[in-house]
């Protein structure tokens, strides 16, 4: 790498933003040049993240034009709707952008507008954006300037199902995805529902049949299957900070065997740097991927019922957000895909 | 109540046993006369349960004959296989017994033998035993002397599905039950897998496609449906002490409406003292039932996919074990069904 | 008890308020007649506390006059400053009141005004109020109409030290109290500092050298010692919901022996229904008092350094707040002191 | 660095051992050449640490001679007593060794023998060993071949007190250290006392007045003070995985001011790469150092009572064990002291 990639972050004061700072600060090919935040403008990084005390970064309130002029690549770690206002500026300047929100995840702007309840202001850029799951769209990403970082739940569900769907092995059109997430997925918010006392020692479903990650899963799974796939998705809140386990149930076509299933997963993932297919009898746990960009997957097959049960685990702030965004950046810039995100999980 | 019911507990040093002591000590109609334990014989209750320091109970090692001679009713809170050796003695003495293990849960001894990998030594008593889920088998329990206390997972899954199945509303024969349990469900064991550091901040599936609670669910759900029902069951370990949430997915026959579904649940549970059907948009959480005999249930219906998503929450040591056992005892002895187990949940 | 005590709660929507509802609902001698809340007026109890779904209580916004006319006794579970506005009305009506805040804990209004930064509006009633720690002020409480429920930390620290100080055994005037509290002590608040992600897996001191419970400890400890006692107090936030452990260090006068110390504690506490003096080598844990009105205490003595190390554990919402308030009520009304608060701790 | 340092680990299957693998695997100047374990010989690293699946390391059972022949430096992450049997072999071969146990922490073998209840088999090597706290003994470490890695509690307490003691500012000879530790400090053990259900939602003191880290603190603090210092030390178990907060109370000599205290801490730590002195009003939390080699420190001074209250936080597996051991190695080998251990803390 002849010179460092200059990176800026918009919305750097949330959990994904903080994780981006942690990763980009340690990235050998990156210089972190701008942290934009309206709320914390003027504050040092250590005032917002006690873990980062001692680093010299400060938050500033940048205009889109200003931050784009400083950076080669922009990470948008702000709520959905923000990235749309930066994208045209980024495009005009010939820079790159990775949105951790949902603005650039959908092929069809109508779908975005239905689920996110706001008009999509730059449908023409949406058409050029790539859904940033490297294991599925690596080739397109290498040529892209704009990527929608996949949602945390969709990443875990799509990786769990890709080998099965791309083999055309799923029977019918209905898949069940039951996910369990740590609390950091809800963001860094002052909401009584996420007060420690309300969360600890509890597990509860939420957003049943109406979570906004559903259409994103359906879009990508349908593309993989080559036909329309529907997902019944139930997320659950778990008393832990980081991590998602998704347990996915898919009816498989008659005649499939356990060995076939396994071979498809091996074929798909054996050379992937960040997906670990577990041995039979081993199961994913969020503890084994804590703080990393890894996704662990197990595959079981109930032959009597022709039902595949696939489990995946990832860190929702890692492979589900910030480190995946860095992986996308690495691909976009043609550098080593694992640069800056090869940290081993912290255990226990 | 003219005189107190004399109760004995076998295996009182585990978590379910301790919960039985807590509940029976405070039960207005019960005198706790014997705590049997081989390991802790000679110890005071406070040496084994720091929470119960100050109570006068001591553990002794009783023979089945001795403890049966002292007690009107025996609770077996020991591993599966133990209750079988007490049952003939209890029956011969005309006393009552409630087994918190699996020895008396199955109608077919062959099923027990297949899943629990040991011969069933008293199949003739098994025929007289009642599967002790009060909301399903209250009438039989009132006449019974022997009951198999349902497993924690089956209690949560059967209560979630009973109204649907007894209406014949489920299409096909396959149901998916995805459960999330606190760690106390694994018992009070010195196993590195349950060391705090291995469990905290983690969620993981286990026993995928082979958990022993599956046949128990299938037996009872098939009885309710009037035809063979199959269950794909996946339990998960959650970093919390007590509680289970089960999320159940069942394909419903064409033509069913959301309102119908809801009315069936209201019909079934509106007069049940320990089942709370939640308002639409509210969801069960283990925090809302902590330390109680309650089971909370939500019902959702995805009309487009004809899929019912039913969620239930209970305390695995309460409605999933000890307080349900006391509820069974109350019914067996014809006293107020809520006696001794009407404690409100501890929150937060 | 010929007729039920009519109880009202002001500020019933916080954690202490919810615990009061749980306890008073089950209290055999109490009828809960009024729950006052401005924020939740019109809501059912189950909308505010999911654990209490199914109970018929509703929140209303009462004037002091209205709620006093309905109730025999008022519990004030609101922030400090609120109780002062109810006290004159309660007194005029000849009713009783127990304040869970700090308004009626101090003998000297100037001390209140200094630490709570507001004028004390009814110093004349303050003079009639009793500091409601039953183990210290039981006799006065039996004759009182107005009590200040001790703070959670002071309860744990004063109970840990009372036997030592009342024997005049402490050397010098300086005591160190290092306390560890669960998060519910901070109240039911939408504050990012208590978001699960900020608290879990963390322990941290706060309010070092300036926590408002310090003068309350010093007042009571000085009274017990018969001379001015100073306390260096450091509270810590622990990732758990309920419970306080206080570790107290006091230099003891030369010549004291371990046996003497222990005998003073036995003398003081052996007949107390809610204090358990632990055997040597056993230590208090918040788990052993969870959900109860108990306080567990251990006593150690470092003879070489003449240093007593006394540890106490209680449930901050129980003996540290709501159940202690009920204990005070029981004493004030001359009924069984343990009525309604004899629940055994929930374990594990 | 012309060639890689070859490192071997003895007892690599515990939590400190796993952390050493994580850190040394990523260390730019180290090649990890041998993992010794009797229990796990033949197993792959991923069988023992699910987080490390995919790495190629295997456990073997090495003799001391064999592992010493392979490695330039040996880390002993085994129970106290093991390192003594390796030390003579290491010394004879002219290699280096860092013991994470207590065998080489004491200047006086009699002290070791009294507290660890076993004879010290190589007192002559003990004389050459350096107590490996870099902030205190950096110069000696640079010349040493053998170091005793400080205990986790002593690291936190000594760093909290060093500036005060080396200024001769402590009055009297008695210091109180009240520490709070996560559960990983107890090691990776199958002990019912560390079962999740026994630990979660609980806080408890243990080892009161008899913890083995006490003499280690006293040795180092006395050296710093130039006179005998005594410590009353109380550790507490906290329901979290990693981290220690120590709250230290020391009576300060008359005439000292807050500003002086603070200036001593700034003087001592402003150039230390791994100690962060917090601004007044900020307090250490284990969350801010999670997974790192950092130690955060706050200093308060109660002028009225002449009492300094110093709080420190570190990761017991990081600065309290594995990463500190790597820091020691870096110093011993004369490479960049921060190499391989500059990871930022994982937050939240």
Q: Could you explain how this protein is built, in words?
A:
Four copies of one chain form a homotetramer. By secondary structure, chain A is of the alpha/beta class. Chain A has two domains: 5-150 and 320-332, NAD(P)-binding Rossmann-like Domain (Rossmann fold), CATH 3.40.50.720; 153-314, Dihydrodipicolinate Reductase, domain 2, CATH 3.30.360.10. Chain A has helices spanning 15-25, 45-48, 64-70, 83-92, 109-116, 123-126, 134-142, 152-166, 196-199, 214-225, 258-269, 322-332, and strands at residues 5-10, 30-36, 59-60, 73-76, 96-99, 130-131, 146-148, 170-181, 204-205, 230-237, 244-252, 275-277, 295-302, 307-314. In chain A, the strands form two sheets. Chain A has a seven-stranded parallel beta sheet with strand order 3-2-1-4-5-7-6, sandwiched between helices. In chain A, strands 9-10-8-11-14-13-12 form a seven-stranded mixed beta sheet. Chain A is globular.
- Counting DSSP E segments of at least 2 residues, the number of strands of chain A comes to 14
- Main β-sheet of chain A: number of strands, strand sense, barrel status? 7 strands, parallel
What letter string, H or E per element, gives the SSE order of chain A?
EHEHEHEHEHHEHEHEHEHEEHEEEH
Low-confidence segments of chain A, ≥5 residues, pLDDT <50? none
Principal-axis shape of chain A: globular
- In the CATH hierarchy, the third-tier topology of the largest domain in chain A is known as Dihydrodipicolinate Reductase, domain 2
- The class by helix and strand makeup of chain A works out as alpha/beta
Oligomer category: homotetramer
Gyration radius of chain A, in Å: 20 Å
Strand fraction of chain A equals 15-25%
Supply the number of helical segments of chain A.
Answer: 12
Name of the level-1 CATH class of the largest domain in chain A: Alpha Beta
Strand order of the largest sheet of chain A: 3-2-1-4-5-7-6
Which architecture of the largest domain in chain A per CATH? Answer: 2-Layer Sandwich
Mean pLDDT of chain A: 97
